[in-house]
């Protein structure tokens, strides 16, 4: 007789919802796209621009040495120094500075780090709530559930594009152990301004929660004269020169077109970094030395990043010229997504019909959000990732326009 005493997994696993792309596969499983034109996946944000040669060269050069050595969780000093220099220059931290020994921890991309931070820093017994914007990156929700916490959704305001932190009471904030924010936002591309951060700092001063800022899209901005504000920069402007209770998460995946490198970092409050480092020492996710070498080369160069922005800027310019008059949308300040309100308002129906008629795959907005008492801010939108070559994206925009203008 087989015993049922040993049930695999912790309770949080049973609460996890299917990932957005699993839901999309189910939605489109019985739909046949047209055979006379190529399919175009705009549903997933995987960069398709060329990998910069300087990163590939550094990676290859370091492999032989790397394979015979265990890497340290804290990373090589040279990598941390390159990251510290980049942070100080990019976010104009001036005299505040970032100490590469105390304020920085390399990570295997932002996904790994954003998940692990809640496992390391949340105390579900005393402050179980993990706040997050709605729509959101589903890793935030899964991290909260698997840490024994409770996800709480902050609906994004339709006008400002910002999470409505004023909707929560002091009692709500008192139960908050950590809040995730994404700036520039996924999927909206909205950059959080200084005033918003300062309102959040005042709440943090009263209630003592951790702020985790996902900034993986920070280098894909439209206006070369207005680089997006970052959380550490907002801290410095508010006189919080020790970044108390604040962590930022950055990645090379989008900035440098190397999603397969799995490289990023966490930076901020030295006390939190120390605790997080202890957790990750046991987790065992140190970056291989050749990955660190390639990462150091990437963080030390801005030419390829500027060229990357230029390519995205041109794609967004063309998309607006093709779509804006038939499907108006708000231009994203950064990132590579268009957050498109769909004609008719039903994002799932639009997604199925678009794929059947044109072979173009987009992601229903409701797959990136959760329904709340105040509505579902993702429903009625689709997310489109302009990650393919310019010509491919332009062709896709023309097909979408024709689809909208000539509904069947």
UniProtKB/TrEMBL annotation:
Keyword presence, Transcription regulation: no
Keyword Transferase applies: yes
Cofactor(s) of this protein: pyridoxal 5'-phosphate
Assigned keywords, A-Z: Aminotransferase, Transferase
Matching Pfam families: Aminotran_1_2
Residue ranges occupied by any Aminotransferase class I/classII large domain in the UniProt entry: 40-400
Superkingdom of origin: Bacteria
InterPro entries: Aminotransferase_I/II_large, DapC_beta/gammaproteobac, LL-DAP_aminotransferase, PyrdxlP-dep_Trfase, PyrdxlP-dep_Trfase_major, PyrdxlP-dep_Trfase_small
GO biological process: lysine biosynthetic process via diaminopimelate
MF annotations from Gene Ontology: pyridoxal phosphate binding; succinyldiaminopimelate transaminase activity
PANTHER family: AMINO ACID AMINOTRANSFERASE, L-GLUTAMINE--4-(METHYLSULFANYL)-2-OXOBUTANOATE AMINOTRANSFERASE
Protein name: Aminotransferase class I/classII large domain-containing protein
Source species taxonomy: Bacteria, Pseudomonadati, Pseudomonadota, Gammaproteobacteria, Chromatiales
């Amino acid at each position: 007789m087989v015993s049922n005493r040993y049930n695999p997994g912790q309770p949080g696993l049973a609460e996890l919802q299917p990932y957005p792309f699993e839901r999309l596969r189910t939605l489109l499983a019985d739909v046949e796209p047209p055979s006379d034109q190529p399919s175009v996946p705009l549903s997933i944000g995987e960069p398709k621009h060329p990998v910069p040669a300087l990163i590939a060269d550094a990676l290859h050069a370091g492999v032989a040495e790397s394979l015979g050595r265990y890497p340290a969780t804290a990373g090589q000093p040279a990598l941390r120094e390159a990251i510290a220099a980049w942070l100080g220059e990019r976010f104009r931290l001036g005299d505040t500075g970032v100490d590469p020994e105390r304020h920085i921890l390399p990570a295997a991309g932002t996904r790994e780090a954003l998940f692990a931070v809640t496992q390391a820093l949340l105390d579900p017994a005393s402050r179980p709530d993990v706040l997050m914007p709605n729509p959101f990156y589903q890793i935030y929700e899964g991290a909260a559930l698997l840490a024994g916490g409770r996800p709480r959704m902050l609906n994004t305001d339709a006008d400002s594009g910002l999470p409505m932190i004023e909707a929560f009471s002091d009692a709500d904030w008192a139960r908050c152990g950590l809040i995730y924010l994404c700036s520039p936002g996924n999927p909206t591309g909205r950059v959080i301004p200084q005033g918003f951060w300062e309102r959040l700092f005042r709440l943090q001063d009263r209630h003592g929660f951790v702020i985790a800022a996902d900034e993986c899209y920070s280098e894909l901005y439209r206006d070369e004269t207005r680089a997006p504000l970052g959380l550490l920069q907002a801290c410095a402007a508010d006189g919080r020169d020790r970044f108390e209770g604040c962590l930022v998460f950055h990645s090379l995946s989008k900035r440098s077109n190397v999603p397969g490198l799995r490289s990023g970092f966490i930076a901020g409050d030295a006390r939190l970094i120390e605790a997080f480092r202890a957790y990750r020492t046991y987790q065992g996710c140190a970056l291989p030395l050749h990955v660190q070498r390639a990462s150091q080369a990437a963080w030390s160069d801005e030419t390829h990043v500027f060229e990357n922005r230029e390519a995205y800027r041109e794609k967004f310019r063309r998309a607006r010229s093709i779509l804006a008059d038939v499907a108006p949308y708000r231009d994203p300040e950064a990132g590579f997504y268009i957050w498109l309100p769909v004609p008719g308002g039903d994002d799932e129906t639009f997604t199925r019909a678009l794929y059947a008629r044109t072979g173009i795959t987009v992601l229903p907005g409701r797959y990136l959000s959760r329904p709340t008492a105040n509505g579902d801010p993702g429903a009625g939108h689709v997310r489109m990732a302009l990650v393919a070559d310019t010509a491919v994206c332009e062709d896709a925009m023309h097909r979408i326009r024709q689809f909208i203008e000539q509904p069947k």
